[in-house]
Amino acid sequence: MMFELNPERICNIIQLAREFHAKESVVIPEMPNNPGDDWALQVLADHRADPVYRELQYALADMEPDQQAQLLALAWLGRDDYALAEWDAALQTAVENLASSSPEQIIAIPYIADYLEEGLRLHGYSCQA
């Protein structure tokens, strides 16, 4: 499968994620042992009134499930969980593991903006003007 996301859209998500995660009150825990835990919803519940969080959540929720899976796979690629040559495997795993609460699942990833930016770079794109 090919990389089919619009890099400009991802750069917007990266910017929103940076703004949201830069706030002092945002504390994201380490990944849980059980992927089924609802820790992301619990952590992010306190931020529902935050306009940056709402804009980021909306930008993610506005994506189709296959686009959300690509974004998750892109983050894993940028985190070095997968190599670029393993893109298809990363994408397949993302499709299989995407939760119904995928926007919150994606927002709750520590350093998500950095991972997405590195994943974009590995695919040959940049958010630099």
Please outline what is shown here.
This protein has helices at residues 7-21, 39-44, 51-61, 65-78, 87-97, 102-107, 112-122. The chain is an all-alpha fold and 129 residues long.
What is the H-and-E element order? HHHHHHH
Number of strands: 0
Poorly predicted regions: 36-44
Describe the main β-sheet briefly.
none
Which percent band covers the strand fraction?
under 5%
Work out the radius of gyration: 14 Å
Tell me, what's the shape? globular
Explain what you see:
This protein has 129 residues and is mainly alpha-helical. It has one domain (7-24, 38-122). Helix content is 57%, strand content 0%. It has seven helices and no strands. The chain has helices spanning 7-21, 39-44, 51-61, 65-78, 87-97, 102-107, 112-122. The model is unreliable at 36-44 (pLDDT under 50).
Which secondary structure elements does this structure contain, and how are they paired or packed?
Layout: H1 7-21, H2 39-44, H3 51-61, H4 65-78, H5 87-97, H6 102-107, H7 112-122
Helix pairs in contact: 1-3, 1-7, 4-5, 4-7
InterPro entries: DUF3775
Pfam family, one: DUF3775
Supply database-style keywords.
single chain, 129 residues, DUF3775
